[in-house]
Predict the structure of Tetraspanin-15.
Amino acid sequence: MAQGSECRNSLLYYYSVKFALSTYATLFSIIGLVILCIGIYAEVERQKHKTLEGMFLAPAIILLLLGFTMFSVSFVGMVGSLRDNRTLLKIFFWVLLVIFITELLLIFIEIIFENKMNAVLHSNIQEGIRHYYDDLDFKNILDFVQEKFSCCGGDEYRDWEVNLYHSCNGSGPLACGVPYTCCIRKVPGEVINTLCGYRTLDKERLELLDVIHVRGCIHAVGLWLKDNFESTLSIVCSLLLPQGDKGAPKDRASPWPPASLLHPSCIPPASLLHPSCIPPAHRSLQLNFSCSICNPISQQRTLMAFTHSFCIFRESPAVHNHTAAPAPCLLFW
């Protein structure tokens, strides 16, 4: 009963891990495929009005890379888990390990070199602001961030001077102003004046505290992440822990399955003792027998032939009371 219970527990663990891995890989395969399709559509639309060359400023490129990576890696894991293919599972494990280490390195780099990373981010945002009205993708993203996080520009509101339409040297109605998404809405849901940011770039911060958001979006988003540290940590862990929990299947020292999976036909007569005991030659017995082994991977029984020299050592059975194979697991027969 104890060995049968152990066998059932091992089966339960095996199928639990297989189901969890298959579900995780399938879910992320679907998500990756959806992101990939959105990226393809966004890239087709972007090519019609292509103005930006930087990868950071092309959200469609980011979606394409993210979707392709998620789908391809998760698909390998899904097929490997469903087919119990050790090679695919090892590929899945090592790729996830590389991604996991890369994510940790990026987090440490962001923490250690925060000022330099902010400078790089600020430079890219300024490049996007320079082409604000030429790239619809970046415009929509920046407008959303400015409204959501109550901010304006990258480092501060004066970043809008790099845009030709908002430069104080311009002569249009937008000159020396900021987009309406930078304006403060005093009443939620009110219809906002699109020229509310008119002539604000040439004024000091204190004069604009009730008109526009003077804080840059880099600082606003960073502050939001710090204020919502628990939520941010939960999201990061939900992405990292499944990756760190996947392990490559361990190779067994023997090609045979566990002894607990042997069919009763594999058990030799009780008088045959363990082959490790070496009696005199006249007390040894050469035995040829076949048995049916149930493979938990393929769920098929395999007929295997064994040839062992078992010893008959009746003089001290208490010392060498070991059978050639443990009790069978009847669950497989």
About this structure: The first helix runs from residue 2 to 48. Confidence is low (pLDDT under 50) at residues 244-333. The chain is about 45% helix and 5% strand. Strands lie at 284-295, 300-311.
